[in-house]
Write a structure and sequence with these properties.
It is a single chain. The protein is mostly beta strands. The protein has one helix and nine strands. It has an eight-stranded antiparallel barrel. Strand 7 and strand 8 form a beta hairpin. The longest helix is centred in the N-terminal third of the chain and has 21 residues.
Length: 153
């Protein structure tokens, strides 16, 4: 009798968990960007791992609906979140890091957005803040990100 009850319990437990395992969705839309040309010694900086919220752009605070978020998974992939007319959107991103011999930092990152243009930036950390800087036609742009535990939906 004990074995029958145990068998029934195990069967029910397995059947109850089956939907959890079969409902996993893999986001594989076939987007596999390559590293930039000439980036042979790239790496994935573990210091970037996690979610980051933009808090300052060129010395000015960023409002809640002007911010963006970068979620680095640690393997060269991630998700970029941004607001457009008050709505939060997301897209896949890829990133590659390498050491730099020039600029304000000895590391740079190339971020490739699934639906946007890639950007190569210098990056460095001050305390727990992530600084990203790149050149534009108007001069240098500097963004400051802080770590966050979640992206608000």
């Amino acid at each position: 009798m004990k074995k029958s009850l145990l068998k029934i319990f195990v069967t029910c437990a397995v059947m109850g968990l089956t939907p959890l395992f079969s409902s996993c969705v893999v986001d594989d839309d076939g987007w596999y960007p390559a590293p930039p040309s000439g980036w042979h010694n790239y790496f994935y900086d573990s210091s970037l791992y996690g979610r980051w919220e933009l808090v300052q752009a060129n010395g000015m605070p960023v409002g809640p609906y002007d911010t963006n978020y970068m979620d680095f998974y640690g393997d060269g992939r991630g998700t970029y979140y941004y607001y457009d007319r008050g709505n939060l959107y997301s897209e896949d991103m890829a990133y590659y890091c390498q050491y730099s011999d020039f600029g304000p930092s000895d590391t740079q990152i190339n971020v490739q957005y699934e639906y946007g243009n890639p950007v190569t930036m210098w990056y460095w950390f001050v305390g727990s803040s992530l600084y990203m800087q790149w050149n534009t036609s108007n001069g240098r742009t500097t963004y400051i990100y802080r770590p966050v535990s979640y992206v608000p939906y």
